[in-house]
Design brief:
The chain is mainly α and about 160 residues long. Helix content is about 85%, strand content about 0%.
Amino acid sequence: MPFWHSGFLPWLFVLSGVLTGLAIAIVMVPVAAVFMPKAFGDFKEMWETTESFAGLIEYTDKYAQVIILLETAVMILYFATTPITSIVWSGSSISLYFYAYILLALVIPGTISYYNMKIVDAGRHKMLIWMTIVASVLALVGGFLLRYVVLIGVQLIF
């Protein structure tokens, strides 16, 4: 499949997988704390003491920013080195999903992660936590959209 003929595609999926894995880990802390408090007592304690969960977020946001920048660079390299991918850039039915991926998986979570660095200094832990959960859910949706674009893009060509 010409749409998949790039050495950057596996790296794009690896970086997207790492980012979505980090996102699901952040989302699952409050889910496990609320719905399974006896099984996950540490998560419940972390969720109830917002400073502890905010500290975890502060720690992981630095990695998320690096992963988002790397994924953006690899995504650009993939689409630049695979000429048949022009179908994704310009006006096909899959373009909307591609631009939604860029917005939901890269731009919005990256912006929130950068903004979180300023919030953590102000001590607004609740806002930091909820913004990070929103960014994580958007990153999960964006990761799904990337896979959809790559799989459906091939079908549009053939």
